[in-house]
Amino acid sequence: MKNKNFILVVLVSIIFFFLVSTTYYWESFLGILVMPSILILILVFFILLFILFRNIAFAVKEKFKVRARIILIFILITVLGLTAYKPSGIIDFDSLQGRDLLIAGAEGAANCTTTFKLKDNNKFYERSICFGISEINGEYYLSGDTIKFKNINSHSVKDSYDFAIIRTAKFYKNEFKRSLLFLEMRRIQFLNIYLLKKMSFK
What DSSP string describes 38-52? Predict the structure, then answer.
């Protein structure tokens, strides 16, 4: 096989794997462009898969005598295999940001979702997925029953939260009385999202 083709495929494979592994960090910068970017990565995945099968066929004909082709096949199998096994990347970057003390989430129209997390290192993260991805992060501290935010950063959202209140909401459904915890966050209006996980803040 030609040396320039070998180098090109290896470089594309490495760049592809790097982008897939770091999507957690760069996808919130793209906003509505994140979906086309993901589609491009999916297209590249199938192109590399085609190249893999093509080179396996050539390797069989050559009786696996071409070392460069064997190396390329190994690289492609590794990259594509890890991507298929861990499509969000092999590193859990969310866990590296700290232990979750509180997780809340909401789902709106068109399957738009919002996830809000408080970490044990006094950091908070909110990620919204709706025709794109936006993220808000910063620091928090407790003041009585109120969670207050400071040093807020946002890549694509102008407004940010001032504070949050955790309260119990009671309602009737199917004649059974249930009690749920809500995380109530205020920008201009209140936003209620289901409290999915809560641990001690002490």
Answer: HHHHHHHHHHHHHHH
Indicate whether 90 belongs to any domain.
no
- Structurally, how many domains does the chain consist of? 2
Look up residue 110 and give its DSSP letter.
G
This prediction has a pTM of: 0.68
pLDDT band at 48 (very low <50, low <70, confident <90, very high): very high
Which value, to the nearest 10 degrees, does the dihedral of the CA atoms of residues 32, 38, 44, 50 take?
-140
Could you list the residue range(s) of the whole structural domain that residue 157 is in? Answer: 96-198
Residue with tokens 């809560």: 198
**Residue where a domain stops, chosen among 30, 54, 85:** 85
* Final residue belonging to a domain, choices 34, 62, 85: 85
Q: Say if residue 165 is in the same domain as residue 135.
A: yes
124 burial level (CB within 10 Å; 0-12, 13-18, 19+): buried
Nearest 5 degrees, angle CA 123-CA 126-CA 129? 155
Query: b or e along 63-78 (b: 16 or more beta carbons within 10 Å of the residue's beta carbon)?
Result: eeebeebeebbebbee
